Amino acid sequence: MASSHSSSPVPHSSSSDGVFKKERDSSAKHYKLVRSLPDVCPKEPTGGVRSVCDGPSVVADQHRWTVYNSKVNLPAALNDPRLAKRESDFFTKTWGLDFVETEVMPSFYLPNITKEHFASYLQETTQREKIHEKCKNICPTKDELGAVSNLTNNHDKSRTDLEQVPKIFLKPDFALDDPSTFNAVLPWSHFSGAGGKGSRDVASSRLLQEKLSHYLDVVEVNIAHQISLRSEAFFHAMTSQHELQDYLRKTSQAVKVLREKTAQIDKVMCEGSLHILRQALTRNNCVKLYNKMKLMATVHQTQPTVQLLLSTSEFVGALELIATTQEVLQQELQGIHSFRHLGSQLCELEKLIDKMMIADFTTYARSDLNRPLEDEGQVLEKDRLESLVFGLLRQRKLDFLEIYSEEMIIAAKNTVKQCVVSTVSQIEEIDTEVVVKLADQMRLMTFPQWFELLKYIFANFILFLKRIKATLSVIRNVVLKVLDGNQKSRLSDCTLAEGNPGKNFSKDPEVAYLTYEGRFISDAFAEVEQPSTGVDTKNQRTSCLRNELCGSDSASEQECTTESSSSREKTSSSVTAGGVEIPVNEDMMLTDLELGRVANNIQELLYNASDVCHDRCVKFLMARAKDGSLEKLSSSEFVALSQAVERFVQETEELCGRRSMSLRGALQSQANRFVNRFHEERKTKLSLLLDNERWKQAEVPAEFQDLVNSIADGRITLPDKKQTGAEERKPSDYLSVDGQKYPVVGTVLLLIRIFLEYCQCVNDIPSITTDMLIRLSDLLKHFNSRCCQLVLGAGALQVVGLKTITTKNLALASRCLQLIVHYIPIIRAHFEARLQPKQYSILRHFDHITKDYNDHIAEISAKLVAIMDSLFEKVLSKYEVKAPMPSTCFRNVCKQMAKMHEAIYDLLPEEQTQMLFLRINASFKLHLKRQLARINVVNDGGPQHGLVMVDIAFYTGNVQALKTLENLDLNMAEIWEQKR
Question: Residue ranges per domain, the chain?
């Protein structure tokens, strides 16, 4: 928007009335008209009078500097000597001296034009320009000659005239008060004539006067000439001055009207209102002063009230009162000289309360844990405990759980000691004066006495844990209530912030600009209305402190309640502890994360209580087991001990929610020793039975048949002892199992009872399942290997003194082994149901045992076949085909076959008998075929062939005449060699 001096618009006279106006030519259309500044008070009340938009607001802008406050000499502004040409005043007087020509940035869209672009044009026009210049110099025009001559003459004449004036008059520092200047202008030689004024002096004076007059005329003529040259600029300045005078006259009138209106508004509308506001502010200040004095009086009663609360163990109330007082001192009573030491005194008092709470909690824990367990009350002084816990949480004293843990350990030791002392005192056989140590006294007890003491300790520990759980539940409930209170407080704060974001005082916009003592009226309204809104935080703290110090005065209590009811609902939450609402101070309370950790620590403390009880029981158990007493227990006694421990462990697990392993581990170590002794006893017993076994079929008592029947019904346990007077039943020859008859020896019957004892121990003591499984598998392997040594290995000949191992002994041993194989899957299922899935790999022992037993049974069958095979080889090697028929050889064979059948028929089942005789028949056919081939007898239909067929028919008839072998397919055609 920069403009050059040559293109500035110049005013011209457009009429003959002497009024000069600016010409609206095309060069001025690019410039916006100079607008007056906007009103700084756009909503100024007008009162029905025409609004003046060209003047400032006296009310709103009387204390603020505006552009109208500037005062400049008008001629000096119009004749700025810093400007080369006066036409630029048109812009600089309105927009400032900075509105001058500036450098225009080159356009990015136009190419950079250099001198080389015009080189071709200059070359073409250079010759023409030279010719034109020559002609121009030779023949100048008339206008140029006249103009040049006039300008030259005028300039020379003006310069000649001015040169007549002495230089001293044209100096910028010309001053006649300077003696040298005065003497130079008016020489004293013209006025120093002696004897009066001579004609010469008069002539000199007149000459000087005329000379000076001439100088003045020359200067005036030049000035007039210059003025005539710049007449348009002068007329333009005069016109601008007239317009400015019109603006000033209108402004003065607007100011007068506005001041009249302001005076009327002040008299009619403002004086009374401002007086009311002044009185309201005065009353508000008086109320504040009264409340401040009342608050000081209340704070002055803090220390006596705290001491009174401490005397009644109201630690929470005392701490809350101290915190509220500290807050009031820091925010509302800061700087008051009389309270300068109160803050430090309250801090020391708060530290003292911390120590008192910890000592009181320690005393409470000791008295609660060491009181008699027979008391019916679960929690001792519940309200006192809740108050202590809340106070400790409020002060972040979280080590109170460690104090309770230490007291709990001491109480557990005392519980065991008291139980032992009370029990020993009732036993006359133990002299407590001779045997002083409790461990030695326990070892002198019999097992029933010691076992009753153990159950007594278990019962006391259950009551002890119930008491601890009830106490920790109260503590945990307090923590959860505090946590819930914090969450509700935050929720209410968020709801309050969303529902009431702020109060806007909507006042009349024309009144909003009226101020009183530098403040807006709306501020004064707000200050007056604040005491009645009930949301001032200072009033809230004051009312809270008053509530705590109200005491028993009913009037003051009612006043405190009235003042603080609304503030308590919005700014504080409460936790109900023992039926008393305890206010929660958000600045002092723990965070949600810390409260959650405290709750978890309480649960861990309950777990630790269970572990402590188990540890004390372990020490009690180890004191008894030190001399090996527990290893010498009978099965029933150890089972009773194991069941008692298991019941105690389960009850503690139900109470505390976590399984403690120390007592079970101690019992497990004792159970391992018990299992070793248990197994060694039964293994030794089984070995003795086998060494005395004569391998004859034994009678089966009725109780063993009942035992087998119970196993078939799924009850793999030992039966109850036989009641006296029960009807005696006769024993049977066989043991009936699942519809099959098993002839057995006496050792196998006892073996069945032995492995049922193993299964019964597993039922009673689940923790020894794996050990019992390994021991039982070892026992079954021992039975199998020992049977093999005694029967197949003929060890019974030397051990028992048998003359020979008969086929009946072999068949009976095979059937006994088959009975054990029948029960192995049942035993496996019994143990599998009591094992963890990760322990199933140990069941492979039963697979190995089953394979060993089946291999042993197969070896016995092979042994029976081998006996007959050797007989066939011996008899048939002497076979000759000759009369009489049937031959003696075949008679002997049939006789031996009949004896074999007679020996095993009552021992082996029908299917096994048939399979055995099929194998014996195959052996017979093999040896007969070899003998026939040796004596060259073939099935050619000859006499020898006929004789052989007679013997074969005799053999077939005798074999099929035996029981269960009627339908046996002997297939005797295989004895003949096949013709090729």
Answer: 234-349, 375-493+590-669, 693-719+731-875, 878-979
